[in-house]
Amino acid sequence: MQEAMIKRAKELLADGTVNRVIGWKKGEFFYDATPAVFRTAEELDRQFIFDDFTQANVSKYLVKESRKDGKILAFLKPCDTYSFNQLVKEHRIIRENVYVVGVPGGPKLDIEKIKAKGITGVLSVKNENYTLKIETLYGTEEMPFYEAISGKCESCKSKKHVAYDELIGEDGEVLESNRFDMVEKLENMTAEERFNFWQNELSKCIRCNACRNVCPACTCENCVFDNPKSGVDNKAPADSFEEKMFHIIRAFHVAGRCTDCGECSRVCPQNIPLHLLNRKFIKDINSLYGEYQAGADTTTKAPLNDYNTDDCEPSIVHERGVE
Amino acid sequence: MQRIGVFVCHCGTNIAATVDVKAVAEALSHEQGVVISQDYQYMCSESGQDLIKNAVKEHKLTGVVVCSCSPRMHENTFRKAAASAGLNPYLVEIANIREQCSWIHKDIASATDKAIILGKAAVAKVNLNTPLTAGESPVVKRALVIGGGIAGIQTALDIAEAGFDVDIVEKEPTIGGKMAQIDKTFPTLDCAACILTPKMVEAAQNEHITIHSFSEVSAVKGFVGNFTVTIKKKARFVDETKCTGCGLCTEKCPMKKVPNEFNMGLDNRTAVYIPFAQAVPKVATIDPNYCLMLKNGKCGVCSKVCSVGAIDYKQTDKFIEQKYGAIVVATGFNPIKLDKYDEFAYSYCPDVVTSLELERLMNAAGPNGGTLLRPSDKTHPHTIVFVQCVGSRCDDSKGKQYCSKICCMYTAKHAMLIREKYPDTEVYVFYIDVRTPGKNFDEFYRRAVEQYNVHYIKGMVGKVSPKADGKIDVQASDLLSNEQLHINADMVVLATAIEPDKSARPLATMLTTQMDTNDFFTEAHPKLRPVESATAGIFLSGACQGPKDIPETVAQASAAAAKAIGLLCKNSITCNPCVAHSNELMCNGCSACEKVCPYGAITYQDKEFRMPDRTTAIRRVASVNPAVCQGCGACTVACPSGAMDLNGFSNSQIMAEVDAICK
Fold it and tell me: What's B490's DSSP letter?
């Protein structure tokens, strides 16, 4: 796949369709796949990768990139195309300036899950018939493929590309996922249990802002948490649980726009399951206003930005919130 | 540095009896920026206003907080007082310590605490107030009347009389509404058609009035003085400009088995029809549900017999757009459906009819040519039982809680007319109460009882059961003599409750006006602004606002017209300066605000900006048209980046109020 992508990227660079390419390159370690922009065939040959660790969603980079001179080639996995569409819908990405090539999605691997098995000094990982052959500094290790797949791929919602100019490989289908199982579990808890769950999780937050910075729905020109006039920028937390406010406000800000790409939880250094907050909103929107998938297209009116006479009454929403 | 004056009103004892006003004034004197804090018996009185004016001058006030009644009462009074003393009127804030405090609390200590908190919130807000200047917007000198019944006709005539153009939109093929179906009118017993049709003709002939019959309002945009309305002219498959109303097509139409809605389905009409002889406009309409040509493509008789070539089977719905300065709602009423009232046998016994059906049965243009005959066997009924309050004054979910108001009088009318015309017919009326307030109303009812010997019996009918011999057994209780009665009747007439027309609710949504739980339009003030809706420029006429008889409807219709004329007379109206604006440096251009704006006030433009890194960038940003914005604030909530803000109700002001309350 990687070879086919590099070949196609070179062709599109050569014929002038695009003047640069966004994809992934190796980070400090081979498994730290990092989004990168490539301008020449030589750079592509030297650095471009597409493997089991290229999880990152590059759509958000296109907010800035699509405003630069010339067209950019973007390799988008199915889940990335939802974020892409949503940003096009919000006029954040200028669609004409992006040439989208759809590439197959995961499941991708999470190095932390490999490390959790006590496997360290990892040099390379190969998938052989759903068994991972892991070369390390200390010898070869093995583990089942499915025990190492990334959290966001475990509950994959779709293998279908909802936006592309061309595809490499086959397109897939929207999947029946189990993504709301954990939300349901939380809903079935008592208020106290739920509070304890979130207190435990969110107290770990070190406010590194990684979740916000990676989130494709968080593209405000001037984020409320960076705005000196908002009165909440650079505020030191009064206690370890105060960052709950940051996460709750962020979840509200992206409600109805979050495509459930899972990047927030992927990048969290404290492994907080932040995506559950967003999924709760998605689940509620689905049940209150009818099935809606943000980013599935660029035209459908978002339920929270739209009014229909058969919308549920506010009292229903209110009652649901009461224990 | 702010210099704020606080003025606490006693409102006689309205506030002072439950709120310690002196303590409120004292507590608020310590708030940030407050330089003077006073209480007074009646702030709205001239001397109270002088107190504010003098303080503004003497203390060089930069803001005023009046702790008094609802801002709906006296905000304007105090703003004007401040303005006359040289202070921008939008630097005045009201803390409502009457409706939201003293009137709803009994305990002085807690009510005083709450009044202080409300005052603190207002002070916190006024600290952040900025001077605002109101702009002006022009008034389109044309009115729209929605509904062409007697209410709509009267309103349109009055507006046209004042010299303004007015359009009537009527969903049926003719104007006239319910009054056209009524036989005689109480309390004078003159014929409804005789007094209505001259008005219908007058409306049709008036050069200022345009009638859009068989049309509906499909979209409303804009605001007071400047509404843009899309009217859907439904396809009637007849060219209105060509049809002469000769009626030949209706005679020749082979499809003669269509229930005639004008006669309440008691007889049939043809698929191409003119509802009644005096219809305005007198133009035929083809019913696509029954027309053989439109359904199967086989027939075309009407097209062949029409000498002017008015039939057009290919006609489609047309949409026209028109601008209006004022809109009057006159959507009227309908009798409720009786499918939940099995005890009255309405659904299966043809001789159990509603009062409106009885009107048609007695009308000369009705199915029996004016002779009252039983629908089942066309025989003369000798015993008729009237049941009042069918679906009115119900405490269960089957009917309506309210009194339909007109039934007592029309039932007395029916009883009297029947006794007059058919003295051999016995008439019984079962009632809960007889309610006949109104000029000459009670006299009318007493005439029915005393002069015409109508048997009024206090009590409800429990069961109506048709018998094999064609008679109807009416089982009822006489509450005064405490007896169970069985009346062997020939006909039963149900005084059916009335409800607003079904088209009213979607219309209310389009107009952004309010309705009550029964779908009657809500007036701006039940006593002092009875013909205005809470939405500026939208007026209410007739039974869409509540049950009404004809005199009341006409009075209200003229009142609504007077209000509309008052608006149309103005060349421009003062705009509300509390409108939204976008902070372009924060705007993402995401269109969320545009999507929620009910007034279409938001557009986008690509603008060049200097970015922090000394580069320039073209960004898509929102801009608000202040003449169109009504300051509802929906955009400020939808905006994900907080770029949208509302003058006079800024996000920071609201946060300051909340902080002041929570402190």
Answer: S
